[in-house]
Amino acid sequence: MRRWSACIAGLAAVCILSGTVHAGDVHGYGQGCRYDGQNRPIGAVEFNQQYGGYDACALSGDSRYILLTFDQGYENGYTAQILDTLKEKNVKAIFFLTGDYARKETALVQRMVDEGHVLGNHGMTHASMPKLEGAALEEEIMSLHRYVQDTYGYEMQYLRPPCGEYSEASLAAAQKLGYKTVFWSFAYVDWLVDQQPDPAQAYSRMTEAAHGGGIYLLHSVSATNCAVLGDVIDSLRQQGYRL
């Protein structure tokens, strides 16, 4: 878990999409701080343009929707309440699981399945995928795929690379394994459990960042996310978005 906070700090980085790209280069994704006329991060738009051929995206293809996604590396006691809110608001989310979470939090994972949410693959060991090669990368993805299928009767099809790290080779490998790779177009510092943002500030960030095709990266370890989620959903719907 302590490695978790350190590596997710890479969210603040801006993905460099210009210049020469080599298949084995390791990139750290970040949506950046520049926006187009539709309030979409330009970094996310450029990512889709450059890597869409690998079934990889940072924005969804439907401008009517905003997708809520949660990275599930460890449990901090808030996921059940988040699931309560999603059920109350009739919203389905994507929960990206690590192997450790899938093994330890069986009741919560089963509830996600039972309530119609999507389970995503976040790597069996939360390893940096572009730093793995061949059989090792396939095992990192598919060992969790098989475990979730055998344990929960659920076949995953969406992958989120740990720490937002990727290469053309890792995207191509995931595609070959039948996966679509999902990054994000909105994220904020919600994972530092001892430095939780002010709820009003978190609410403003999440609602003012709204854009068509948005993919929100959230963490269920956040007490703030748990507290404001229902109001955020209401606001996004009032702005005309579907979730």
Task: Catalogue the unreliable spans.
Answer: 1-23
Strand order of the largest sheet: 5-4-3-10-9
Structural class: alpha/beta
- How far apart the termini lie comes to 29 Å
How much helix, percentage-wise, in residues? 25-40%
DSSP strand tally: 10
Instruction: Give helix and strand order, one letter per element, not per position.
Output: HEHEEHEHHEHEEHEEHEH
Classify the beta-strand content into a percent band.
5-15%
Main β-sheet description: 5 strands, parallel
If you compute it from the alpha carbons, what radius of gyration comes out, rounded to the nearest whole angstrom? 17 Å
Backbone shape = globular
What are the main properties of this structure?
243 residues, alpha/beta, five-stranded parallel β-sheet, three-stranded parallel β-sheet, 9 helices, 10 strands, 40% helix, disordered N terminus
Give a written overview of the molecule:
The protein has helices at residues 2-8, 42-51, 79-89, 99-104, 106-114, 134-152, 168-176, 199-208, 223-238, and strands spanning 27-28, 56-57, 66-72, 94-97, 118-121, 158-159, 165-166, 180-182, 186-187, 214-219. The protein has 243 residues and is an alpha/beta fold. The longest helix has 19 residues, at 134-152. It is globular, with a radius of gyration of 17 Å.
